[in-house]
Task: structure prediction
Amino acid sequence: MFKPLTLFIGLRYTRAKRRTGFISFITLTSVMGIALGVAALITVLSVMNGFEAELRERILGMTSHASITGADGELRNWEKIEPVLQNEPRIKGWAPYVEGQAMINSDRRVSGTMIRGIQPDYEPRVYEVANRLQEGELKDLRPGEFGIILGAELADHLGVVPGDKITVITPQVTATPAGILPRLKRFTVVGIFHVGMFEYDRNLALINLDDAKRLFGLDEAVSGLRLKVDDVFFARQIARDLGPKLPEAYYITDWTQAHSNFFKAIQTEKRVMFIILLLIVAVAAFNIVSTLVMVVTDKRADIAILRTQGMPPRSVMGIFIVLGTIIGLFGTLVGGIGGVLLALNVETVVPAIEKLFGVHFLSADVYYISELPSKLEWSDVLHITVVAFFLSIIATIYPAWQASLIQPAEELRYE
Result:
């Protein structure tokens, strides 16, 4: 089917004569349609990969890979768990914490938030918040001084800067001669952090662990221990293996239990988006059908002459398969190269478009991430290009088969 003559004629038909320039134009549009579909699919999947990776990094940068707490939501004598954790090579760090909801009041506004008590010397073992500080340092959270570090959005909402005083009001109450009153304490803003996720920048504040115990009335207990493991994808298994080794019965959770549905939804969305965009590639690929049908109609006399000279039907079929394959190959290559270049530079291209048109695609108060990330996976590029090329070949079969059925006698009767 694919002898040198067949290949030569198939290549020759890619260049139309002047009188068949319209066929050449249709061929070009078929190539560009496949190229645009492949480029769009590569770019969109790269952006979704970037979103997933960025969300995982930011979420796990502010929450624990796993956590240990007591059955009543409090953990006492957490220091006796440390020897067990030190003997576990897959656990890279741990830190005690106290967590609770509170109301923050500044001179201008009031806002509900999550208060997290941390141990400044332990915290860098588990979280990346130390690298996210815009102002201040974790060591500024000294016990007894009641300093507080606010998320950037929360500080902006309250209208405070480092050095300002705020009042923290907790749901716990205090009995006084005047009646039952909510517990409140004055704090000094000593720092501001910016994670890049509105959920944390707007709704989280950090204070010293000892101050948090006093604020929430926990005495010597903490809310729990947060753990950092060497591989987040094996956090569940590591947590299961750790349970029997602990000296008492504790409640162990991992990040997959808290955020599994979220990341499963991203994976589902990615698969659905792949299918939807693949349909665009399929439509572009099947434009090859109309192109080849027009070429076959235009070349009916040429095909008849080739048949009279002894060319078998399968070789005629091979000519148009070669032609359609070349269209699909060029479209796939151009789209693949364009998609890879765009995916690698989307973090530069998008800000330039936003600046040019004065728009902002991802608002921080609506989306988790305000920038458009991109992570190119070469396996995605391979799958997309292979599927697009395969669809292009499939689209050539029907027109090529119709060309092989042309009868020389009927076509040359009036020539």
Q: What stands out?
A: Residues 82 and 94 are 8 Å apart (CA to CA). The chain has twelve helices and ten strands. The chain has two domains: 4-57+262-411, 71-249. The radius of gyration is 33 Å.
